[in-house]
């Protein structure tokens, strides 16, 4: 899952809610981890890794997550895009 967003100005509780959701998603069976980055201009990208689509569906239906989604549309985001994709292969390098 790849979530890209452009934030509105100000926090309005966003940071606290994001922290809560980061803890909450860890309890979803099949959640494998996530990576996030945000630019000073407000563009953010979060990549969430899930074992399968059932795990994504469980996260999508979580009531706290749904409430945060609603608040995001009303207050926190100018725009966002969500892509659901399958990773076929992955590798990395670290010194």
Automatic annotation (TrEMBL):
One Pfam family, short name: ABM
One function term, GO molecular function aspect: monooxygenase activity
Keywords, alphabetical: Monooxygenase, Oxidoreductase
InterPro entries: ABM_dom, Dimeric_a/b-barrel, Jasmonate_Hydroxylase-like
Domain named ABM: residues: 6-71
Entry superkingdom: Bacteria
Record protein name field: Antibiotic biosynthesis monooxygenase
